[in-house]
Structure formats: C-alpha cells, structure tokens
Write the structure tokens for this entry.
Amino acid sequence: MKIAILGAGATGLTTALRLAQKTSSEITVFEKDSFLGGHASTFQVNSTPIEKGYHHWFTSDNKIIELMSELGLQNHIGWYESSVGTVFNSKIYDFMTPIDLLRYKPLSIINRISLGLSSLKISKIKNWHDLENFTAVDWLNKNVKPQIYHAFWEPMLIGKFGEEHYKEVGMPWLWGKMNTRFKSREGFLSKEKLGYPIGSFDILFNSLSQKCENLGVKIHLNSQVNQIKNNHGSLEVSISDAETLNFDAVIATVPSNVFHRITTGLEESYIEKLQNTRYMSAVQIILELKHQLSKYYWLNIADRSFPFVGVIEHTNLVNESIYGNSHIVYLSNYLTPKNSLYHLNKTELLEKYLPFLYQINNKFSENWIIKSHYQKIPGAQPIIESQYSNKMPTHETGIKNLYLGNTSQIYPEDRGTNYSVELGEKLAELLIKKSINN
Ligand SMILES: Cc1cc2nc3c(=O)[nH]c(=O)nc-3n(C[C@H](O)[C@H](O)[C@H](O)COP(=O)(O)OP(=O)(O)OC[C@H]3O[C@@H](n4cnc5c(N)ncnc54)[C@H](O)[C@@H]3O)c2cc1C
C-alpha cells in the first residue's frame, strides 16, 4: 500500500513510525517547512536550539515518555521542580502548593479555601461527558463564588482564549487541563515536576525521523501539499513543485482550515465541521536577558492591565549555562487577527510590554536585554467549545482512505505533544483496521 502523510510534527512522524513498524507499506511524509517538529520546532539562542513557543512535559505524559524510551532517549529527559506564581494587582503570589493557595491575599481566607475546594471538585469529576452542556464560564458561575471566579478562573480562561473567546470554551477543556496538572504531582501537597528534553525537542524529532527513515519511510521537507483529490479510487496529491503523485491512502496532520483549503470533494457536512474549527495564534516575544527576571518558571498574569498573559522563564526550569548564560523569558499571548496586538511587530510589542516587566521586577532595566525574538505560531490553540464531541471533525473524512488527525481532535485534554503521539498511534491503527476490512 502506498501511504502519504502530510506534516512532520509529532502526529505525522508518530503515524509514520507505527505504520512502518506494523505494515509493509511504502510511506512518504510531506512537510511544507524546511525543518521537523511543527509547533514544537526550535530556533537558535547562542547556538543552542530552543522551542519557538515554551514547551515542557508533565510526569503524566506517558505516551511521549514511552516513545522517548523506545528511541533510547529515556536518559535525555531532565525532570525539574516547577515554580508557579500569579500576578494580581501588580503583586506576585506563589502558586505552587495548596499552602500557597492559603496565602493568596487577593482573596479572603474563606475564599482561598473555597478556591482550593473548587479545584479539587473539578479534579474529582469522573465523567467529563456530564460537563459537555456547560461552557466553563457557566459551570464556574454556578459552582464557585463570584470573587473566586474573577480573581482566578476568569483570568486563566482569558489567558488562553482572550477576551473574544473565553466565554465559548467548554467545561470539559478546563476539566482536562486541571486533571493533567493534578496528575503531574506526586502527592496533594507536593510541588509539580516538569520534564524537558536535554538538547531541546529537536532530539526527539531528529531521532524519530531517523528511526522512520531506517524503516524505509521517505521524509520530504520543503514539500507543501497544495491539493488532495480522489481520482478513481486512488488519492492524487499535488506537491509544491507541481509534481502530482498517487497514493492508496493519505493521512493529513495539518490544521483543519488548511485541510479544507487543499482537499477537493469533501461532503458539505464535513466541510461545516472544518469551518467551525477555529484557532488562536500564539504570539511570543522571547527575551535573552543578562539577569533573572523573576524566580518563577511560570507566571500567570491574572492582572488584566497587562498586555500579555504569561511569563515563562525557561531558564528557571533549565539551567542558563546551556544558553551562554542568557536568561530566556517568553512573554506569551494567544491572539486572533481581531486583536490589535496580533498586528504589531516585535518592536511595537516590546514597547507595549516593557513597562510591565518593571512591575514583575523593579530592578529590570532595558539594558538587561541582550537580544529579543518574535515568533507567531498560527493554529496554536484550537477553541474547544461546549458540546464539542458533536462539533469535532472525525478522523474519517468521508473520502475513502483519506484521514485527518490534528490538535482540534484532541479532546477533552488540552493539546500537547503527548496527545499528538497518542493521536499518531490511533491514526495508524485506524488505517490498518480499515484497510484489513476493505
Ligand atoms: C506556544 C505553544 C506552547 C506549547 N506548549 C506545549 C508544552 O509545553 N508541552 C507540549 O507537550 N505541547 C505544547 N504545545 C503543543 C504542541 O506543540 C502541539 O500539540 C504538537 O506539536 C502538535 O503536533 P502536530 O503534529 O499535531 O501538529 P504540528 O506540530 O502543527 O504539525 C503539523 C505539520 O504540518 C505541516 N503542514 C501544514 N500544512 C502543510 C501542507 N499543506 N503540506 C505539508 N505540510 C504541511 C506543518 O508545517 C507542521 O509541521 C505548545 C504549542 C504551542 C503553539
């Protein structure tokens, strides 16, 4: 069987590996970019690769940890104690353990306890399907006090989905997010541990692609697929240089809007699902600093006067020595074109952001900045609405032997490389099962 896979990110490469291990098919991966890794790809800081958007693993990310072991990379994951803070009314509060929660001064002591209990309540919900009818905002407003909602939950939702979309997010998404974080702790009172591959996510993608190639998979970079169409039972795939090739099966791991654009002959009902899939772009300013900005790896910004929603100081997780002693800080936002910040360039964004860095550290000075970088990552975060099970596009597309697998089909967990590996394995199984039954 001749199989084409579109995309050399975590999903595409895992699908290729599993198909190559389990079948004797001829497998070709087409990747539009000149590099592997998609959303988890890297750029260089002082000759060391680092992700364009902050990346880490949770201890509960079993699938990707198993894959690292399978690739012989089990000793290449560093596990580090995470440190989390929250900025509220220009002050930073520790937010690592339930004890910190009890010290969270923006809320009265009664409300602090209530906040802890509300997080626990969410994590104890067994059947997330029961939450499908609720948006997160509706559920929280029914189940937590308004002060707690405004001081904690609302800023968290706005942080991920912006003012425009946070009210649409389904409660199962929040449930999935809370569960991942709870599972990443060894005990109720313990601090969270996070993993990061020694040598960046590049070591995973390089090793994964090498293993695929050893099994006969062909991986073509700089090969954008411009069209897929059904041609009398075989699937015709047109590549960037106008070459057209025929395949028995195609697995696309591209975003839903791209899949819609390049596929001819989809049924209306499927097109509707693709069109309803909406994404936010991640807009990241990455600073190389002479000094540490704060002591936290992860700073949630629950203060709506700030023009960014997260400060992720990567070198508070991983030692700065590997980046030539530069302290690496991501100033993170998730935006759509409707937000004016989306249209600003690096210099314009920095101008808006800098005054707020003084609020995080009053010693901060502009001459701490050695270098700054700008990354805009389209399709970074699908907007997961209520009733999403009915809205999510299926992997089978209605065109025989054409499958779709992307982050908008990861549910109820939040998207992440662990779930992309799981998805890649699922897609390979699905194709094998379907072709046996054909
Ligand atoms: C800012 C940010 C932070 C994140 N943080 C974390 C984290 O901490 N931990 C974690 O595990 N995950 C994190 N993620 C999520 C993780 O990066 C993604 O879930 C995962 O990489 C998605 O993999 P994928 O293969 O499904 O999609 P992608 O990585 O998007 O891969 C799809 C590939 O398809 C290619 N493609 C698109 N169109 C075409 C075409 N027409 N022809 C050929 N190729 C095409 C793309 O170039 C891309 O390489 C983060 C993501 C972002 C954006």
The chain has a mean pLDDT of 93. DSSP finds 13 helices and 21 strands in the chain. Residues 178 and 232 are 47 Å apart (CA to CA).
